[in-house]
Write a structure and sequence with these properties.
Blueprint: H1 2-44, H2 51-74, H3 87-110, H4 120-148, E1 155-160, H5 164-174, E2 181-187, E3 197-198, E4 201-205, H6 210-216, E5 221-224, H7 231-244, E6 247-250, E7 268-269, H8 272-277, H9 285-292, E8 296-300, H10 305-315, E9 321-326, H11 329-342, E10 347-352, H12 358-368, E11 372-375, H13 382-386, H14 389-409, E12 414-418, H15 429-444, E13 451-456, E14 459-461, H16 467-476, E15 481-483, E16 489-490, E17 492-494, H17 495-508, E18 514-517, E19 523-524, H18 525-535, E20 546-548, E21 567-571, E22 577-582, H19 588-603, H20 607-620
Helix pairs in contact: 1-2, 1-4, 2-3, 3-4, 6-7, 9-17, 10-17, 12-14, 14-15, 14-19, 15-19, 16-18, 19-20
Length: 625
């Protein structure tokens, strides 16, 4: 009760304070209305008001006050926070003064007070009142900004980008909401902007001038505020920032800014993802929404890196129900909590289960009746699976078979299998399991109403166990960074980018396709290591040593997105999505027989026989002439 009483008292105090402010502003408005009305008469008669007009002025003043104040309230002039006055507030003032002026004219006419009334008074009074009322309100904002712009102990800051995002960041810094930054200048590649000023801060040059400007003006921090910049532009700007020696940060990419607004609070460290995935993707949102809106969607591996991002993005398209399926209770707990927080109206069901447990999976299918399935559950760590071969095949092959077979039995509309570039010419057990999964799914697509398809892509940066995460930990520990081979390369993509393309592929698929995501040029792991060291403000070899460890079991020097000998690539309507076409037919019966053998092998824990079976099928890839 005491707590409730305390809260009520606090609210009453806030109400009283707000009411007092409103009354003060209203009192000032009354004085301004009187002042402007008297001044209008004085100006009309060159500061010498004749007695008869003075009497008209006094007689009409109460009516003027009543109508003005009434319309000031109607147009919300006492609801705004004038320290943040904007153009919208100026429009409200114009509407209030203009509308009340029209009503004053009508009122005087109807009250027979119009005869002998100087018509020019209406215009002079209108103009003076707009200037005085608007000036009073905007002076509150300007005086606040003036006093808040006094020199601070914030870092001397250079803002890269004089566009709308850079202007918003600069404006917020100048308002004094964050004393961490003192803006010194702006950088922009548009030559027409050089020398111009934004809120009194000068555009000093382009990106090539960053190093010189940092040294000359003793800049401590650089803020990259170009959310629409491509990855190549960001890389080049980052190179100049590194060369300058100043600290540097960025604001999120366009796709990460949900409401389209940027603020000082969004400034963060430049991450490796910024250098890989800043380029906005072209996604057909209407088509994707049509695919998932009102549907029951199940995501296996919903607690993993790809699975969780799938859940995040699918939730935006208003499915009827989102089923999170994962065998790890901790991972599914965090995914469910995040989705429930961000999409409280969505029915999101956390299901702790194993794809290899057919009975449990069947019960889930029968109860929830999913219509669309994204099968992301898999063991993915290459060296780890080399020493856990039986588990790799049990989970990645037999688990996939379970979920796919149950999809047919329960009349699932669409099944999307998440594959990997390691399925191409598999040189390791994990890749072999994924290739077998692709072939099994492709075979099912031939004679079933469920639309089966696969989506193949390379490494996703930032996922659990990814090389980028490993490098971050090693840098934090002071090194060394371990690189398997100086020439090793990988296709790298950010998690959100990969999932956007998975959803786009799913909306395009008609069954039987193996979609391949265009991941650009492969990136050398050595270059990745060097860049991440520099992003941490350190120098490779000098501050953080790089150690070559040699390729691990099952690892390739380079990955491929398709098998040139056995597959060809076909374009789709999306420039970043391709479809794999087999040059030769594959023997689906042999695929079924092999999976049957593997089931028996796993059951009896016969690892030697498993290895020989695996080596036999990867050599042929089940191809037939």
């Amino acid at each position: 009760m005491n707590s409730l009483g305390s809260k009520i008292n606090q609210k009453l105090k806030k109400f009283d304070a707000s009411r007092k402010k409103t009354l003060i502003v209203m009192a000032i408005d009354i004085l301004l209305i009187i002042f402007c009305y008297v001044l209008a008469f004085a100006l009309r008669f060159e500061l010498n008001i004749p007695l008869q007009y003075f009497m008209i002025m006094l007689k009409t003043l109460p009516l003027i006050l009543l109508i003005r104040i009434l319309f000031f309230r109607v147009f919300g002039l006492y609801k705004g926070m004038w320290r943040f006055a904007s153009t919208e507030d100026l429009v409200a003032i114009l509407k209030a003064v203009s509308t009340s002026s029209v009503l004053i004219v009508l009122s005087l006419y109807l009250a027979n007070q119009f005869q002998g009334y100087p018509r020019s008074i209406f215009f002079i009074d209108w103009m003076l009142l707009v200037i005085c009322v608007g000036g009073f309100r905007f002076s509150i904002r300007f005086s606040r900004e003036l006093f808040s712009n006094s020199p601070k102990a914030g870092k001397r800051t250079l803002i890269v980008g004089a566009g709308s995002a850079g202007e918003a960041i600069l404006r917020e810094m100048l308002k004094g909401r964050n004393g961490s930054y003192t803006p010194i200048g702006l950088i922009d590649d548009n030559p027409l902007k050089k020398g111009l000023k934004v809120h009194g801060v000068k555009v000093m040059g382009n990106r090539e001038d960053i190093t010189e400007i940092v040294r000359y003006y003793n800049i401590e921090e650089i803020i990259i505020s170009i959310p629409s910049a491509s990855r190549d532009q960001i890389r080049e700007i980052v190179d100049f920032c590194i060369e300058s020696g100043a600290q540097f940060k960025t604001i999120p990419a366009l796709g990460e800014i949900i409401d389209g607004k940027v603020s000082v609070n969004q400034i963060r460290e430049v991450q490796m993802e910024d250098l890989l995935g800043r380029e906005p993707l072209e996604t057909d949102l209407k088509k994707i929404k049509h695919e998932f809106s009102g549907k029951r969607v199940l995501v296996t591996g919903g607690g993993g890196s790809i699975g969780r991002e799938l859940c995040r993005q699918i939730s935006q398209f208003e499915p009827e129900k989102l089923l999170l399926f994962d065998h790890g209770e901790n991972s599914i707990f965090y995914t469910h909590r995040e989705i429930h927080k961000n999409f409280p109206s969505l029915e999101c069901v956390p299901l702790v289960a194993d794809v290899c447990d057919r009975k449990t999976t069947q019960r889930i299918f029968e109860h929830y009746k999913p219509q669309v399935i994204f099968h992301a559950a898999a063991h993915k760590h290459v060296p780890l699976m080399e020493v856990n071969a039986l588990e790799a095949f049990r989970n990645n092959v037999l688990g996939t078979k379970n979920v796919a077979d149950l999809s047919i039995e329960n009349k699932v509309e669409k099944f999307v299998f998440i594959s990997t570039d390691k399925a191409v010419k598999p040189g390791n057990l994990m890749g072999a399991t994924k290739r077998l999964g692709e072939l099994y799914i492709a075979g099912l697509a031939r004679a079933n109403s469920t639309k089966f398809m696969s989506v193949r892509f390379g490494n996703v940066i930032g996922s659990t166990g990814s090389v980028a995460r490993l490098f971050k930990e090693q840098i934090k520990q002071g090194g060394p960074i371990t690189v398997t081979h100086k020439d090793a390369s990988r296709f790298l993509m950010t998690i959100p980018e990969a999932v956007q393309l998975i959803l786009q592929s799913a909306s395009m698929g008609q069954g039987g396709e193996i979609f391949v995501l265009d991941m650009g040029e492969p990136i050398k792991i050595m270059e990745l290591a060097r860049t991440m060291i520099r992003l941490s403000g350190l120098e490779p070899e000098e501050d953080i040593p790089i150690k070559i460890t040699g390729l691990r079991a099952g690892e390739k020097l380079h990955e491929e997105l398709y098998n040139e000998e056995m597959e060809s690539m076909k374009k789709t309507s999306h420039r970043k999505i391709l479809v794999v076409e087999n040059k030769n037919h594959f023997n689906y019966g042999l695929v079924i027989d092999t999976i049957g053998d593997l089931e028996s092998i796993v059951k009896y824990m016969d690892e030697k026989r498993l290895i020989s079976t695996y080596q036999r099928f990867i050599q042929s890839d089940f191809a037939t002439a």
